[in-house]
Amino acid sequence: MYARQSQAREEVETLYEEDEDEHGDTLCGACGENYASDEFWICCDICEKWFHGKCV
Prior knowledge:
InterPro entries: Alfin, Znf_FYVE_PHD, Znf_PHD-finger, Znf_RING/FYVE/PHD. This protein is an alpha+beta fold.
């Protein structure tokens, strides 16, 4: 049972790291702050820039 929990935790951590790597250089088009996975983001269909939900 412990091995399954450990494996599941490692998979979640790997997904989190991949998400951070993929978006690590993404800046908010409004405020210029870096991407953070714990915040809501919106991509503009026209300019394809990313924005914090709180900035739009």
